[in-house]
Design brief:
Helix content is 42%, strand content 17%.
Length: 263
């Protein structure tokens, strides 16, 4: 039996960084995303860095998390691995971001896409994995392997109002509320549920602000808006995820990683 890290959006950005940096903490990794080539690249990065892992201890799985049927099929395919888990740390990281858009210009499709992927993708996957967590209960917990955890990656857009993010922010706020409600429901099962709410992080989802982007003025403006006058890096968010994976007496909380912009 192994401790499992099950992480979505593992092909790039925060998900990839978390997979690579946290691989040594887990005996089995399940890396999920849409682009199988990116997932394989993440796997290769782990194998090069972490010699404790072999090819069969890292599973990559391509799945459209906006489709519940696809999630059900994936969990069915992974049933044997999940059934043998000592503990499961689920990181719901996959999300989409289509940039700033005034509400009047948004379409029903825009809202549905955010709803299906940024909220229901996490909801449906968590619902499918919970039976495996409940099947292995713990009387006490202290370290990885002694408790299950669910970590949902939200955004400060879900905790502070930003113009042009009505759809994106609304669904991130819903993710935060749902996480807290779930923490209340699962506390007696020793399943911790928490949220990490990043601010502006230098990942592909924010390429518009990247220092390598031709619109360098946008990058400067983005940095100057932060209290620390710089964009966050994926490793900053991973530090928060790692903390929560090790924290058996923290649940129902939202850990903000935003360079101080919420102050």
């Amino acid at each position: 039996m192994k401790n499992i890290l099950f992480i979505t959006g593992a092909g790039s950005g925060i998900g990839k960084q978390a997979s690579v940096e946290m691989s040594s903490l887990f005996g089995q990794l399940i890396l999920v995303g849409r682009d199988i080539s990116k997932l394989k690249n993440t796997k290769e990065s782990i194998l090069q860095k972490d010699k404790s892992h072999a090819d069969d201890s890292i599973i990559v799985y391509s799945c459209d998390l906006g489709n519940k049927d696809n999630i059900i099929k994936m969990i069915k395919d992974l049933d044997k691995t999940l059934s043998q888990a000592l503990s499961i740390s689920l990181v719901n990281n996959a999300a989409i971001f289509n940039g700033h858009q005034n509400f009047i210009d948004s379409s029903t499709d825009d809202w549905n896409n955010y709803f299906n992927i940024n909220l229901m993708g996490s909801v449906n996957l968590t619902q499918a994995i919970l039976p495996y967590m409940k099947a292995k209960s713990f009387k006490d917990n202290a370290v990885i392997g002694d408790f299950h955890c669910i970590i949902n990656i939200a955004s400060t857009a879900g905790t502070r109002v930003v113009s042009g993010l009505s759809a994106y922010g609304s669904l991130k706020a819903a993710l935060i509320y749902w996480s807290a409600a779930l923490a209340l429901e699962l506390g007696d099962k020793n399943i911790c549920v928490n949220v990490v709410a990043p601010g502006l992080i230098d990942t592909p989802i924010h390429d518009f602000y990247s220092k390598d982007n031709k619109n360098s003025e946008h990058y400067k403006q983005a940095c100057n808006a932060q209290v620390l006058k710089k964009m966050g890096q994926p490793k900053d968010v991973v530090s928060a995820i790692k903390f929560l994976c090790k924290s058996s007496w923290v649940t129902g909380t939202t850990l903000t990683v935003d360079g101080g912009i919420s102050v």
